[in-house]
From TrEMBL:
Domain of life: Eukaryota
Protein name: Mitochondrial intermediate peptidase
Keywords, sorted A to Z: Acetylation, Calcium, Cobalt, Hydrolase, Iron, Magnesium, Manganese, Metal-binding, Metalloprotease, Mitochondrion, Protease, Transit peptide, Zinc
Cellular component terms (Gene Ontology): mitochondrial matrix
Gene that specifies this protein: Mipep
Organism expressing this protein natively: Oceanites oceanicus
Cellular compartment(s): Mitochondrion matrix
Span of domain Peptidase M3A/M3B catalytic: 192-618
Amino acid sequence: GLFGVPELSCPEGFQQAQDKALQESEQLVQKACSIPPGPETVMIFDQLSDGLCRVADLADFVRIAHPDFAFREAAEEACRSIGTMVEKLNTDVDLCQSLRRLLSDEIVMSSLDPETRRVAELFMFDFEISGIHLDEEKRKKAVNLNVRILDLCNEFLTATHLPNKIDKHVLPEHIRYNFTAEGNYLQVAGLHADCPDDLVREAAYKIFLYPNAEQLSRLEELLASRNSLAQLVGYDTFAHRALQGTMAKNPETVRQFLEKLSDQLSKRTQKDFEMMTKMKMKLNPQNSKLMPWDHPYYSGVLRAERYNIDPGLYCPFFSLGACMEGLNSLFSQLLGISLYAEQTQRGEVWSEDVRKLAVVHETEGLLGYIYCDFFQRPDKPHQDCHFTVRGGRLRENGEYQLPVVVLMLSLPHSTRAAPTLLSPGMMENLFHEMGHAMHSMLGRTRYQHVTGTRCPTDFAEVPSILMEYFANDYRVVNQFARHYKTGQPLPKNMVSRLCESKKVCAAADMQLQVFYAALDQIYHGKHPLKKSTTEILKDTQEKVYGLPYVPNTAWQLRFSHLVGYGAKYYSYLMSRAVASMVWKQCFAQDPFDRAMGERYRREMLAHGGGKEPILMVQG
Ligand SMILES: [Zn+2]
């Protein structure tokens, strides 16, 4: 069956797997409630979580990626029923009581190792979010708020992608063909950010971002509900709650981080905007004021003008085989780890082009498995992604449960004439996702609750972004980039051109991200908000970004990450800052330094989410 799980040889198997998991979980709940508080309590909680996650995480992947609808549907159902069970457990007073007894027993707690203590606290945190420590009335309120928030999130998310319609006569005739016609209306489904025609981008921006009253009230209710829930369970704001346990720890640190970043960027951002303005003046002298819809387009023009980085020039040097060889060689030099292709059993994979890699350490042996689902196929989502299918943990019998992950990319298939060739961007993404996979493989945590990438959001991207630095280093690239026909290495000046091109307008691009992150913080900060979300957007945009706010637009209504990253949108920036520091201090001098590789593994990767992230960074 799928991933070697015997039941999952057919869609119906999900029902069996799910029933088995639910049954086991009930037994474990009883056990947890009946034993005296001690390290075993945490062990049982983790076992409980593992049994449910092993089905839910696997199903979560299958429902997205399986080509067979029946499998997707069965997996969806399994996700739902496990999700319901998890909610039930998170509000189970007896179960919570068993953990609380442990946490309040100072003598037992002080005898536990730091990882076990942290995991116990993390489990408690899950209980608290559902308001379990509240009296009956408040708990009911918390449950209702949770339900309402979930609905609002789904509705908001859906509406962020919906097109806006406009009477076609409003637009000049010569640009109408850019949009989908529907009778007398035109549909504007996005920002058309790369369109060379300034007028098309302007029209798309103003129409696509035109405020929708329903979506506006949805957002306001979502933010207010999140705030109420956070306050109900004892936090000042939603941001305070969301940031507990992260690297940043609290909104104040995030604010300082973003401010500092913004200060350091501001001069360079100004320069970038000046360059873009000059370019706009050259191409469109009548109307040269730089507007928000110009930023992505003109930075692209500048990049292309300065450096010829046509992907077609680079692709032949980045065959998939060469890139994988490069990763293998890098990991073996840095960490003593090799990747071996392993034969799969019948029914183990969901598409015949999926490859299974065994990750093997030179002395420790097999560390885990990576399933590489790299190729495009109909219905497969177009996202590069890392999925944890099974977390690593120490089993009761002393064996280590090996982690299993999937890496999903959308690469073209090979043809008769050429192998799969990656653009520089795809190559960088492959390295990035492989960074997540290595985090999963090398996190040797006792508990799966904190396995590999199950760590604070603002730390999660550190290992993957660090891999991007390797992907852009000539010494690394030179080891594997070979022309697939001639075997010729990628010329050094082409690598430096690529790296230089990334610096063009990089400050302005990052400034935009700082603006989004700042907006996310304010929205999830002190309530009631001082102004409307649109006025806050306007103020923040002018203060933090620099390009003018455009009246009658409301970009925040398209800010889909507010749902999944509420109060944590800064995470990517902070991860990047840490990754950059790690690169400079540990690998910039010698990207193959084994001693540094070992130190990096020991201090950062090995702990997954089992150690306070800031301590890992200090290490
Ligand atoms: Zn990532």
